[in-house]
Each structure stands twice: as C-alpha cells, then as structure tokens.
Amino acid sequence: MRMVDLIEKKRDGQVLTDEEIQFIISGYTKGDIPDYQMSAFLMTVFYKDMTDEEITTLTLAMANSGEMIDLSSIKGIKVDKHSTGGVGDTTTLILAPLVASVGVSVAKMSGRGLGYTGGTIDKLEAIPGFHVELPDEEFIRLVNESNVAVIGQSGDLAPADKKLYALRDVTATVDSIPLIASSIMSKKIAAGADAIVLDVTTGEGAFMKNIDEARRLAETMVRIGRLANRQTMAVISDMSQPLGEAIGNSLEVVEAIETLQGKGPEDLMEMCYILGSQMVVLAKKADTLEEARAMLKDALETGKALAKFREMISNQGGDASIIDQPESLLTAKYQIELPAKTSGVVQKIVANEVGIAAMILGAGRATKDDSIDHAVGIKLHKKVGMPVESGDSLLTIYSNSDSIEDVKELLYKNIEIGSFATEPELIHDIITA
Ligand code: URA
Ligand code: CA
C-alpha cells in the first residue's frame, strides 16, 4: 500500500477500507508516513468527509495506537463523561463525587486545558496535596473501594491522536467533524469506559459555534459509540455564556463545594442533574431519568455527595479540610470589582472572551508550556437576563497583579447591558442511539 494512492482515493471522494485506514494510522504513529503526506490526507478528509464506518475504523485505530486501559476488574458498568469544552465548566468536579455517591463507578481520566482555561486536572491541582498521577493498579483499587478516582490522562493513551492533533492545529484541519469525533472517541474508548455521556457544547465559548454543527458532531459520536459497542448518548448544551459563576481553578473548586452543599449556581446545578441522571441510568442504577434525578437530589441534600468529595480528596492525598474552609483556597492578592457603567439587563456575556480574560490573569495557558496560577480568576455576579443598576458589581476579578486595565477593558467589551434579554436555553437537544 502506498500513502499517495490513499490520499488520491480520498481526494476523489471514495470510501477507504478498514485495512487502508489502519495502514494510515499505524504508519503515521510509527513515523513511516511523513507529516506532509498526513497533512494532505487531513485536508482531503476536511473536504470530502468520511462515512460512519470509516470514522469508526479511524477511531478504533487511534484508540489502539497506544495503551488500552482495562477496567474489567472494577465491578459494574463504568460510565465516563466528556465535555467538548467550555468556559468555567465545573461539572466534572461535581459529577464525579455526586454520581459515585449513588453507587456509580467513576474511573475518570481527565485532561489539562486545551483552550483558554484550565482543565479538570488543573482544577484538582488547586487542592493542596492532590495527586493526579496514580499507577493504574492504585487507580483501580480506589474505584473499587470508593467508587471514584479522577486522574490525569496517561501519556500513552491514544498517541496517534496526540500526534494528529498537533498536526491539525497547524494545518487548519481542527474544525472537521470526522476528525474531532474520532479524536474525542478514541481517547474515551482507550480509557476503558463501558458507557459514555457526551456534553457537546455550542455557542461562542465552544468548538461548535452553532447548533446544527453541534448536532452533527453529537450524532456522529453517538453512532461511533454504538458501532464500537459502548453505550453513548449526548446532550447539546449552551456555552454562549460561561457555566456557573466561577472561572478559574481555585474558584471552581470552591464553586464545586458550594454546589455539592446545595448552594451552587442554578444553571450549573441543573447541568449536573441532567448529565448525572444520564450517567446513573446508563450505569443501570436507576430505570428512569426521574428516578435517577431523585437519587442525586437525595445524595446532595443528605450530604452524601459532599462526603464523597471529601473522601475522594483524602484518597488522592489532598487536604480535605478545604471542604470546611473553602475560602482558604482564595489566596489571590487582589479582589477587584467591575462596576456596571449603565443600568438595564445583561444581554450577553461572551464566554470565550471571558475565558481569555481569565487566561490573561493566569488561570489558563497561552501556550502549552505555560504554568497556571490556581488562585486567580473571575467570579460573575450577574448572568444573562439579570437586571443591573449602574455601579453594581458585575463580577469580581481575583488577581495577583493590580495592573489589569487590559483585562477590565476586555471584560467591559464582552458584557453587554441593554433594555431586554432572553435567557439562553441550557440544553438545546438530547441525542440517543
Ligand atoms: N477535543 C478533542 O479532544 N479533540 C478535538 O479534535 C477537538 C476537541
Ligand atoms: Ca463555573
């Protein structure tokens, strides 16, 4: 087989065979196929698309390019959850202990931030002492004993994806549904889950800027999941404004604790109930979504969910006293209010720009090698649809520098106050097999 013939075949809009796709992925992972041929191939996929069967073969070939985690020694159905990315998305910190507290096994491998703000692993590292790197056996032991462990993705998980993502990033081929779907699903499949709940975000803070694209991505991933024998469903959620109120690593840990105490922001709480109920049903711990939601609500109200978060933190070496003193995490030198310049109703809070503001403060990485300042970030006091009076604080900036005029200006430019607003729907659609 020659790579040039396969590029030509896809260029002419033909369907590749399983053997051909496996040849491309194993050749590229080993370094036999050079970047220039792979770049040309990615561009043909961008323009000519792939069938569901091709995408599934591609996904499985990428999953098989490295370590396949075997979770079979954990009893029960292992459910994973994945979000395609957002700003201030604190859900995993809340969902892992919440669903574990009703008996679902959560063996979660998470990533660091790809975009502007920290990923789940960065947020967990805001907890003093918390270990995100555990040997596989220890990870499995914790899930068996305690139903929950959240660790960083191992270096050898889907190495084909790591190499391909870096190449896509510099060849204008990130925005392709078959490539995004195979990238995400290859990592989920290699991480060993039996069932997968996908949160496909849409809006200005997300990969998919409009609902139609988000729906196509969601449907594609759900079909791949089914073809790969993993029960998969997707929720299409709104990310036009940040989720919840906190954006920034320590601030989001505090927000997670407050939410597990039943005092969290309404949109974030609702998102956790929606995704959590789906996880509980896929894990066969409840027959209906209503029953699942009632179980989760009970776990929250009785303190079981918060106790599980405390246990998860201790199990992984973290300082669990933060559960009782969450404010001890908020160590930024300055807390600076941003007063509204006019009165009216909040019409828009542009999620990705607020994410960039948090990144400039140090909450995220501009380049992959930057380090993160866990203490800094943004706490919103007003969200879309809320009335404001001139002079009201729109948000508090947590900063370790007091010269942040650029951040303030960026935030002012991206928070619109007008005479009326429609609150965005939290969930646009649910896609099941
Ligand atoms: N997230 C991923 O993991 N891969 C993509 O291609 C896009 C988003
Ligand atoms: Ca948040």
TrEMBL record:
SMART domains: PYNP_C. Keywords: Glycosyltransferase, Transferase. Homodimer. InterPro entries: Glycosyl_Trfase_fam3, Glycosyl_Trfase_fam3_N_dom, Glycosyl_Trfase_fam3_N_dom_sf, Nuc_phospho_transferase, PYNP-like_C_sf, PYNP_C, Pyrmidine_PPas_bac/euk, Pyrmidine_PPase_CS. Gene3D superfamilies: Nucleoside phosphorylase/phosphoribosyltransferase catalytic domain, Pyrimidine nucleoside phosphorylase-like, C-terminal domain, Transferase, Pyrimidine Nucleoside Phosphorylase, Chain C. It is an enzyme of class 2 (transferase). Its cofactor is K(+). The keyword Glycosyltransferase applies. This is Pyrimidine-nucleoside phosphorylase.
